[in-house]
Fold:
Amino acid sequence: MQYSIQINQNLEFFDLNKVARQAAGSVLMRLGKGVVLATVAREENLVEEDFLPLTVQYIEKTYAVGKIPGGYVKREAKPSESETLSARIIDRSLRPLFPKGYAYPTQIVVMVLSADEEVDLQVMSLNAASVALYLSGIPIKAPVCAVRIGRIGGEFVLNPSNKKLKESTLDLFVSGLKDELLMIEMRALPSTSEDASLIQTGFAEAVALGAQAMNELSEDELLSALALAQRAISNGSNAYEEAFNKHRKQETLRLKSEGGNCELLNFIKDNFTHAIQKALHQMAKSERAGELEKIAQEILKESAFSEEEILNALSSVKKELVRRQILEEKRRADGRGLDEVRPIEIETNILPGAHGSCLFTRGQTQALVVATLGGENDAQLSDSLSEKNPLSERFMFHYNFPGFSVGEAGPMKAPGRRELGHGNLAKRALYPSVDENYPYVVRLVSEILESNGSSSMASVCGGSLALRAAGVPSIKLVAGVAMGLVLEGEEYAVLTDIMGLEDHDGDMDFKVAGSRDGITALQMDIKLGGIEREILKKALYQAREAREHILGLMEEAEGQIVVNEEILPKLELFSVEPSKIVDIIGQAGKTIKEIIEKFGVSIDLDREKGEVKIAGSEGEQVQAAKDYIINITSGTRGRNFSKGKDLSGFSIGDEFSGEVKKIASFGAFVSLKNGVDGLLHHSKIKHKLNENDRIRVKISEIKNDKISVDWLD
Structure:
């Protein structure tokens, strides 16, 4: 059966019962040239543990765009970072739909079989997965619908094409069902100037002239964009429900009882409430778990219940106490008010060997963020189905979460979904603050040394200051804060700067990052279904107050920064005639290789624009390499192009006793006179040479502003 459905200006086609017919639910969705297969598989037996055993995988096949995988092994292997992040978006959108007590191992797999460069694969894949889940017989309320909102020419645009999104100053991804919003991801996109002033006046001056706007979104603007998204989501969700409701499987599934044993719950409340409240005041997760374990062992001795029953009941009572104290007493487990930020301590450049560093501590959450500047060759290359050429990532953010940060002993593993997701959020928050024309490649690494909630937002704050500590003239400081929600009936409380306990037992995880002028990145996940507009508005404005408070402390810390100027890489960016680039490269790359070896620098060339970028650890060598290149491209004859020395006093056959100035793979540079060096080719070297050795040489050739010599000794 095939259905065509008009969803928000897109004509979508769904094939039911055509492929993957042994899965609990499957759909083959087509949009333009894009084809996505979404399947849902479910085991027959419940797990014993108290959690939702859901896994989501998003897989891109390179044959979808007529490519063979790169690398030595011509086969798709582990998921790429972009695939992992797309899987997280699907997971976070669909997980809230599952009924409480659902404990069947379930897997959702989305495979991109054919890609259209103008089709948004994330939106398409989530919608396909939602329909497959709705058809699977798992009792969810309604299908989820996803949309993306852009802002082009100051106007909000629904579901822009990939090409149009490149013109947008906003990327807002929203999913929900009916009138409920379930998941939000937002980032501001920079708009850059093509003005050559970046080369003529330098980056810092260009920023001062307004070469780039950060394009933050105000709270009211964000609410307007979300209103547009909500209307489109409602249209899509209702259309999916109307089209596919009659095709849903009708299955009877057993759900675990949420309430637990009433006798045990009452026993714990009557005898251990005070002890549990005392344990809640232990802020560290390991300490709190230890206290609750002691209580569980005491109950085990006094009752006939199993340890698993006791632990589950303890968790329920703990959650009830945490939430009741917040709603009734307006007080949190650590004694803070609902809108209070934990104490903050900031230290900068505590690592003398790093380009820039910041130790940011907020309560019991601590992030050490380190900035490193590099050349063009340090950029991260990655493939994308929507792009013909590999993408060059010049701004990177890597987040690491070792077990010791929460008091756990375990092996150090490769980054998982959580690490990639948190790093991506911090990157989206900070990316607009660094001008796209900034000449260095930037890598930020956040090492979480202690964690009790909101470590990703601590990484944003520390990352913004680490950039400044590395001398990066970022446009504005950016801070982040995690908000929470406790909702019972008509009562609710919005929490500022949540800790781990409130994240676990609350109803919302809402992270907001931005400058004093607006929001640069936002991420929201709801655990209880949709969120009302008024609650969302209150959370946004409460987050702004917290952000301004944190930015005030960050601005004070910025005033204390002492930049490690002596270890920062040096860079020269200048222009030559594009036709002269071939002279810099030389025959088979010989000239540029000689320059790199002689001066110990890296060189990047733009053939179309005639731009030359030279980077190195020593300013003198970088400047010398620049002079060297300028003299090559200026067509000067009779002069040494590296230092502008006159060669008119040199003739073939002249002999010199000179010092070896530098050893390179292709030869050695030997000093002659007046600061001029001669090249002794490696084929003419008679035995091993070291720098500072003295040898006798004879000029054998003067050509193209270079002197070649023979070894006489």
Observations:
- The CA atoms of residues 221 and 518 lie 10 Å apart.
- Residues 193-211, 636-644 have pLDDT under 50 and may be disordered.
- The radius of gyration is 31 Å.
